[in-house]
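subagent[fold] <- orchestrator: predict structure for attached chain, return tokens only, no commentary.
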Amino acid sequence: MLSLSIRQNPEDKTATPVPDFRSVGTLARIVIAVNALALIVAAARASEWSRLAIEFIDLAAVVEPPLVFVMLLLFSLQPWLRLLSWPALAAAAFVLSTTGAGALALLLEARQREILLPGGVSRAMAWSVLAAALVLYYLYLRGKAFSPALSQARLMALTARIRPHFLFNSLNAVLGIMRSEPRRAESALEELAELFRALMRENRQLTALADEIALCRQYLDLEQLRLGERLRVAWRLDGCPDDALVPPLMLQPLLENAVYHGIEPASTPDPIAIHITRQGDTVFMELTNPYHESESHHAGNRMALDNIRERLALFFDMEAQLNTVLLDGRFRVTIRLPYRRASS
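subagent[fold] -> orchestrator:
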């Protein structure tokens, strides 16, 4: 399963993390890399360009069965493979790939089916070693490019920051009720402190969805002080998986955008709607809010959305998506991410 932190090994902050063979992104890259190698071999074998497609199809018929078999082995053994160092992982991958390719080649020979690669079993195993070496080297380079040190630096740069105007507005709102509602003012200051404590926390670890929602409620309580009845939020949390792990400070910036771009410029109340649910192994989130066009606001909105989209990619690779749409004066953000729990 996916590691709960960008760091693969807390003891070694410079270590290159091993690939996650249960990640859709990793599996897709393996398929693309192996088929790209097959295409290169087909191009070398084709006597003329018109035969390239035929050669590639012939090679694919030989390459795909062992590829699928080896990927299933890697998927099944991921809980143990993730504990290995890179040299041990490479040795295990070579053994699995050669064993898988050799076993399938022997099976084809036993059934008296033609092996399209000359040389039979030995040639199939040799090609599997070459393919495994190239794919592992590519995954190693990619892992190095997204090494823990770089990922941590990027997360620090990408970590959402509450806009300064929110701090000033919140403090002014607290001052406004300090005499009339001292208990509410004290509670607001505690909520503000908790919010900024979360911002200052290291955000390399995934956090429970329940904690993220609690943080959002604290933020909305503070905004309610100054916006009053203009701020209305409709929560739909039926089926919400409280134990799901999400990137920290993922929902709060979306709510801040909704308030900043939708509620503040509006003269009449128009609610923000939040819907979170789980369907199988996927968590779906949808946030809609009124939207009032502004050039400066639009630029800030895109930056915040790109920020969250990149943090989702850092934690979940291709398994998470963030999409937006503006329709009939309402802005909708939808997020899809894999359901992960602390126990996994």
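orchestrator: received. Logging for downstream: The chain has two domains: 24-145, 153-338. Residues 24-145 form one domain.
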